């Protein structure tokens, strides 16, 4: 199991001991991320090898996974992922299993990159949260809220966005930032230390929605490099 690297003494992350605790614990008292640390069972690398996906993001369904010619260790890994899907669906969630062999990048990111490699928060118009689990490959990464700054609040970046907008810093500009998701992306402060979500750990993280009692959790997809094995990821 890849060790989970959490910032020492960081009160916004709470470890839980079961799925029941993960789904029933409210975000409160500043806690904006819940982590169920688990022991890896099975051979997820074999599953990725047998999938032999092309570039980009491939959505995996149960039939595709069940039909893979894997060993018992590979079958255990498949059952592990499908059990996670089942638990989430039983609670009216909509999980997706992906095999990721490279994400699209911003061709011209401009003043604020908005692809998944940029630290960001998820956003919704109603109360909800995000679920994540990396089973294989580089794991998702988090950033402490107190070690981050919204990119749109950096004076130089905001000036460039205003020039791009072609108007004044008013409500119309704020709407422009929101429509383009610029206000969801963050830069790390000097000496910030991003942390890994680890492998096979199931996370529930807070989202930016009206009335959320806690700050949203800042996270990103990990940088990927040529020759690396694809990722297996559950997201909901």
Describe the protein's architecture and organization.
With 236 residues, this protein is of the alpha+beta class. The protein has one domain. The protein contains six helices and twelve strands. Strands 1-2-10-5-12-4-3 form a seven-stranded mixed sheet. A three-stranded antiparallel sheet has the order 9-6-11, with no helix packed on it. Helix 2 crosses helix 4. It is globular. The chain starts with 12 loop residues before the first strand and ends with a strand.
Taken in chain order, the helices and strands follow as EHEHEHHEEEEHHEEEEE
Q: Whole-number radius of gyration?
A: 19 Å
Number of domains: 1
Strand content: 15-25%
The counted number of beta strands is 12
Task: Show unreliable segments.
Answer: none
Shape: globular
Total number of helices: 6
| Largest sheet entry | 7 strands, mixed
